Amino acid sequence: METSEQGRKGIAGSERALQLAIDSGHADGAPRAAFNLGVLREDRGDFSGAERAYQLAIDSGHADQAPKAAVNLGVLRERWGDFAGAEQALQVAIDSGHADLAPMAAVNLGVLRDDPAGAERAYQLAIDSGHADQAPKAAVNLGVLREERGDSAGAERAYQLAIDSGHADMAPMAAVNLGVLREERGDLAGAGRAYQLAIDSGHGDLAPKAAVNLGVLREGRGDLAGAERAYWLAIDTGHADQAPQAAVNLGVLCHGQQNFAAAELAFQLAIDSGHADMAPKAAFDLGVLREDQGDLAGAERAYQLATDSGHPSAASCAREAMTQLRRRAAQTSRSARRN
Question: 82-90, long-range: CB within 8 Å, 24+ apart, which pairs?
Fold first, then answer.
């Protein structure tokens, strides 16, 4: 209780100190104090008090604190559901022309607006700013927006802007999105090139995802060797989600080619990952593989793994497969005794 009381006293003391700085009217200190007071009040859930403090910073016209407060106020109002008020605050930050905060506000405004034309204009503002982070982010968002509107050519142009920026996160994200878009349009060669860009970026999440997508793409085109290479790229990254997915895909591919040893290795990799979705599926697939080879004891062990996982589909499929396996084994045993 004492700690809680001390905390309240400390916050009250901080508010008083910030209010004194605001009341001083200092050209830099007062707007900065108003912004900090807004953050403090927001952190403790006093949203109306935070709004008043941010507005003080905005009204100061300070070159940095005013647009910073306007962005925070926009985000705060959006959380309240005051979308019109959020737009007004973000527009203040945009109109400030601040090198960092105006593009950030433009991206936020694009996300906020539910009219596609208005959102597109906001994203274009951020793109035109050339900001190192916000322009590529806006380009990706614009690509997604145009896809949703059915403007595939426009989406491709937007994604290409983000790719050309070389941004560490947005460029590979745009490349993956572009690959998916091109696949949907039937441009499989173009999709492959886009996925390769994302793979070459080495991004921790997006490169493995692109490798899985490329593997599926190549498999669909009959390039099974190329698909294997792509799946191995994803597996070798050790990504928590994409590596097990790639291992399952590779196992199914190798099973289809009757490369049983490679298939078993791939399924075992997915099982060993412990992935909540892929490990049980791989266990079921491994059971099928072993059953096909006549290794009924090994098949039962694999099916049991899938059953024990409790996975909504793999467990029930494995349970049914194991029942059928035991039924056939019993029938074989009865036939042998009669003979």
Answer: 83/112, 86/112, 87/112, 87/113, 89/54, 89/58
